[in-house]
Amino acid sequence: MAQKVTIVSRQQWGAAAPKKRETLKGSAQRVVIHHTALPRCKGQKECMDRLVSIQRGHMKDRGFDDIGYNFLVGGDGAVYEGRGWGVVGAHAKGNNHDSLGIAFMGNFKNDTPSTEAMSSVKKLLQSGVSQGFLNPKFALFGHRDLGDTECPGEKLYAALPQLRGTT
Ligand SMILES: [Zn+2]
Q: pLDDT tens-digit profile of 127-159?
């Protein structure tokens, strides 16, 4: 009964190969929601360019093995594959080994997340549960619940209850 969600693959957005890839042990128990804290991108071309630059920043400047997040979502509801399912991310220090990191593209300190993005993430979570990548009883957090950060921004943080529960 999980709704279908279309994911723009790494190949489609032109991702560089990861330096290393660590498999998550078992299904993810927690979901951590982030924002990129960058201006929102409009349309797939602009979002894909943004993804390439985020990945470059994470790998070159921050020394990560790959783009930090497992998935990212654009304001139009397009979902982009980051590290993807079943892979340990680099998004919430000390909390990466049992979780899935999803980033909303944009800055949600003052902006409200779009209904399209919210609905896509809900579908993505349902799809993760139905494929066994995500525990059906997963707990969902904002990054700020787990670390000293404003992430995912006031407005997105306030919207998180809408993402809890998969019904
Ligand atoms: Zn974050």
A: 999 999 999 999 999 999 999 999 999 999 999
Give the distance (Å) from ligand 1 centre to CA of residue 130: 26
Residue 46's identity, in one-letter code, is: E
CATH topology of domain 7-12+24-146: Lysozyme-like (3.40.80)
Quote the pTM value: 0.96
Distance, CA of 5 to CA of 67 (rounded, Å): 21
The DSSP element (H or E) to which 52 belongs, if any, is helix 43-56
Interval between CA 148 and ligand 1 midpoint (Å): 10
Q: Measure 52 CA to ligand 1 centroid, in angstroms.
A: 18
- Gap from CA of 145 to ligand 1 centroid (Å): 10
CA of 142 to the centre of ligand 1 (A): 8
